[in-house]
Amino acid sequence: MSVVHPPKNDQYPRLNALIAEAKQKSPFYSDLYRDMVTTGQLTPKDVPLIDHTKYWAAYHDSERSVMTSCQIDGILMKTGGTTGIPKFTSYSQIELLRTASLLADGLLHAGLRAGDRVGNLFYAGDLYGSFLLHILSVISLPIPAIQIPIGGLMAPDVTAELLRTCRVTAVLSTITSLVRLASYCRPKQERFPSVTAVMFGGEPMFDDQVSAVANLFPNATIHSCIYGSIDAGVVAVSAGRPDPAEHIVLSAAAIVEILVDKDGDLVPTEQPNIPGTLVVTNLIRDLTPVIRYPTGDRAEWVDKSTFRLLGRNNHAVRLGPVSLDISHLRQLARAVLKTVAIEAFQVVVTRQDSKDAM
User: Fold this and answer.
1) Burial 27-54 (b: 16+ CB within 10 A, else e)
2) Which domains does the chain have, with CATH numbers?
3) What would the pLDDT profile of 227-242 be if each residue is shown by its tens digit?
4) Which InterPro entries does the entry mention (predicted)?
5) Is pTM, for the whole model, over 0.90?
6) What kind and span of H or E run contains 262?
7) Which H/E stretch holds residue 52?
8) How many CA atoms lie within 13 A of 253 on its CB side?
């Protein structure tokens, strides 16, 4: 297993190179950085945050506006589920392969072993990247493993049959798919004792879900396979601790900041147990730069290189594997209520019968 080191200042030359290239070649970043001097040694706090609304509006007008060049290879993928205008992001071929290698590192941290038969239950198609990326991640492993590409759209009975007949020993999946499978298997008292590693991604895991998945796979460790997203890239790997929300930053791939409000300004904190907004700079993506990009999540530092996820920020709601922008929910409310004036707007998310409810 590779060793993950804490973030160091030697990330900053790479940050400076990214900023210089983005300012020179990307219309969006050229405008964002127009008043910023890019000579000398910049640190993240010297760089403005990306405004999501402006970023995606620029991408929708012309994807080239946020890119540093025209795409000639690689892949186009849809970002994690949301309402409103579809959002896509581009990876070059080399960026795709680097991402697969980082994902492979995440699988090792999450408990994958040599010789495992890996059941991939992520969703495929419709430009979503999780299934393909984890096919590539297993190929990129430094240890031997066997792919079992089941997918996430199969009925639970079919998934259960394939896990059994293909002798799967490690599972990659969203939490939603795992809980649905657990709900199907529980009345039948069906379990999968041969599975020794469950690696989830795409959504947070709650205590009731941990219990359901642990009952289904009684001999398995349960860890996040990575922390990241299609738009932000791979950011961190499982810390391998009892709390699945704890992740170790991949310092060669990303700069992670946790920002807190100080007199109306968002400033970085390195103090543990101080909740704030999680902001990411991806160090391996040149084609579509991701520089000081708010992920939409809240987090707190555990130690210098490890953070704990605390759920979504206040501009988005997470329901299972789907993110819903608050602004889009407001638009929906206005459309339904028509002439009724909305003076205040609140979204309440609860857990009912082991499901998210809004």
Assistant:
1) ebbeebbeeeeeeeebebebbebbebee
2) 9-95+227-312 (3.40.50.12780), 111-224 (3.40.50.980), 316-357 (no CATH)
3) 999 999 999 999 988 8
4) AMP-binding_CS, ANL_N_sf
5) no
6) strand 254-262
7) helix 52-61
8) 24
